[in-house]
Here is the input.
Amino acid sequence: MKLLFIDFTIPHLFDDADYPVGGWAVELRAWLAGFRAIGVDTAIITTENASQNAERSEQVALLRAYADRGRIPGANYLFRFLPRMLAFGRSWRPDFVVQAVAGINTGLMYLLARYLRVPFIYRCANDIDVDERVEKRLGVMALRLYRLGLKNADGFVAQNGYQLSRIQQLYPGKRAIVLHNPYQQMNSGPSLPRGERHYVAWLGIFQPQKNLPLLARIAYALPDVEFRIGGKLEIGMNDKTTVDAIAVLEALPNVKMVGYLRRTKVPDFLSKAIMLLSTSHYEGFSNTFLESWGAGTPIVASRAVDPDSLIETRGLGRVAADPEALAQVVRETAALSEADYAAMSGRCRAHANTEHDPVHLSAKLRDFMEHVRAEV
Here is the structure.
């Protein structure tokens, strides 16, 4: 089986560069490892300046098609990228075209799949992909192309039950499945005990979705708790509310801004934290949750971003019914006894390592796509 993906930021992840990449790039890297283990060939349509080192290290074909926009908006897409995309599609000859992240590329990859006469699979990357909130994130043309690809997808792979239920409402009769994100184990050492963990971690790209104003309010309300914040501004992001919140955080004496963390530094950062705090308005299935659980570090989050209630029902952290209650939940989690914390930490580690194995999940996705192909 041969699969064709698209992503313009994943080469930075392969190179472990100082560049903020989205959650789909992190997730895709884990899928690639799983597919490689079960003998599925993969290729990614990506930027024309992707390094050779990235390709060799990941054992994936990088099809260098995209160049940054020129002086005329859309000209590079129309006259350079699209012809290259079609040519690479013809030469690679995939069995399936797979795309994630709502936007222009959803429609383009659907059209490529139809051109190649192969099934098009859409992987939901966020809860807003399947409801009206996506309209606030996309421009008119991007929204039209996204909806074109979405309504004509041959199969859907959801991250959680909410996404699946919305897909079934919107497109009844189409084949869909829930597969939680795969996790590549990067921290094989023993989990640190509570006594060797000293701060509340927050990790992510600085963008409106992550709700940094809430993070600032929580840190201000807990002056005796140390917060360490890893991340940097999203490229091109100029949201004033987010920028103002960053300024507040930088001024608080109990907050340490550690900057953007390369992927190789993330496990150590999380392993020394008491908990990982999520302040997001929405997610799908956060890869950072998996990285935190893999380090034996519980999650504190609002119920809105607890995927399929895993945190609450499996004891993988603490959940606040309301975002404004997160400060109290942070304090309660920090006050857990050594024994209770050790038990929670152990559950986190076991869950990440047993329930999110990339080889097992990739095999399930392969089987799902075979069923889709049989019905197309």
Q: What stands out?
A: The chain has two domains: 2-182+357-375, 194-355.
